[in-house]
Amino acid sequence: MSRSTNSVASRARRKKILKAARGFFGARSKVYTVAKNTLEKGMQYAYRDRRAKKRAFRQLWIARINAGARQHGTTYSRLIHGLAQKDIALNRKVLADLAMNHPETFKSVVDSVK
User: Fold this and answer.
1) Domain boundaries in the chain?
2) Please, are residues 92 and 65 in contact by the beta-carbon 8 Å criterion?
3) What is the C-alpha separation between 69 and 62, in angstroms, rounded?
C-alpha cells in the first residue's frame, strides 16, 4: 500500500504562516522557514510587551502625579498615603489624567489630603 500524506492540511498550515507574515521584509515574508521563525519571535515579543506595557503606563502615571503634586507643595508618596487614609478611591490613571488635563480639580484633591 502506498504512503499517503495529508497535503491539504500541510499546505493550509504553511499558508496560515505566510499569510500572517505579510508585510515582513524580503525572505521573512516569502520563505516558509524564515517566516515561521520571524513570526514565532514576534509572538514572543508581543506576549512579553503586553505585560511591559502595563508597567510602562503605571510608571508614566506616577511621574505625572508626582509632577502635579510637587506643584502644590507635596510629594507623590504623601499624596497617595493621604488618599488611602481618607478613603478616596482614585486610581493612578485617573489621578494622572486630572493632573494633566484638569489642574484645578487635581488641586482640590491635593488640598483635601493636606
Assistant:
1) 8-113
2) yes
3) 10
Q: Which grid coordinates are listed for 83? A: 488618599
Homologous superfamily of domain range 8-113? Ribosomal protein L20, C-terminal domain (1.10.1900.20)
Contacts (Cβ under 8 Å, ≥6 apart) of 62: 76, 92, 96
Give the pLDDT of residue 57: 98
pLDDT along the chain (114 residues), means of 10: 88 97 97 98 98 98 98 97 96 97 97 92
Its pTM stands at 0.80
Residue 4 CB burial class (10 angstroms; 0-12, 13-18, ≥19)? exposed
